[in-house]
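Dear Dr. H.,

I hope your travels went smoothly. While you were away I took the liberty of generating a structure for the chain from your last submission, since the lab meeting agenda had it listed for discussion. I wanted you to have the full record in hand beforehand rather than looking at slides cold. The sequence, exactly as received, is reproduced here:
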Amino acid sequence: MRRCLPAVLLLLLLAGCGSSPVIDTRYTAVSQDSRVQYVILHYTSSGLQRSLNHLAHGGVSSHFLIDRQPPTIYRLVDEHRRAWHAGDSSWNGRTWLNASSIGIELVHYGYHDTAEGRIWPAYEPAQIDALIALLRDILQRHGLGPERVLGHSDVSPQRKVDPGPMFPWQQLADAGVAIWPDAAEVEQWSTQLKQCLPPVDWFQQALAEVGYTQAVSGDLDRATRNVLAAFQMRFRPRLHDGEPDTETAALLAALSPHAAEQLAAEQVVLSC
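The corresponding predicted structure, in token form, is as follows:
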């Protein structure tokens, strides 16, 4: 009669025969969250077939691609894997966001320059509806708030402009999948400022508080103008020239509690 091997020895023998170790999964840590911390939105600058070829067979990728008409959602990369969509990027102190984000590309032609100036085509309403449904699903599954939905121009303001000034951020905010400044607060700050401008370092501090990568130098340099333009493109798309003005200051004050406190306490010297 054969003797039975002890259970522990049997498990060790079985583990040695296979390619994977035996892992006990009876315990789960409570201190954890999703590896996904942001969702970054892009446009493709091309039509569907070229976009698919570029994202599925080229040197870049995204987790999702949404066509214009009909608004088909394609999944190109599993959410648990890293897609190569953000590149050199940063937000709220995090850098190289490919590892911590989901990328969504929208089939859209971007802009074209004419003798009359730069032309930005509108987005298809049905495509935006599909995006909103997808964002709701992603945010719910990963336990993320609407502040975690960003544009490529937010995380890479020195080199990117997508999804552009025609992207309907306020519609996304109304649907609960993005942020937007409170209109009453913006009006209040506009009235309080009375065309008086905070100094450049206040703008820089406020932009950094929102999440942008922005040095506080007091100099209105090209990098600062690019970040201002990215902020304006998102929250005041009709004019995104990168110039500090009182309307931009009011928008920033409505989104930046500490910067607003400085204005309220008159801790900054205004230029009128």
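Two observations you may find useful: The beta strands are 38-43, 64-66, 73-75, 90-91, 94-95, 101-106, 112-114, 117-119, 149-151. The mean pLDDT is 93.

With kind regards,
E. W.
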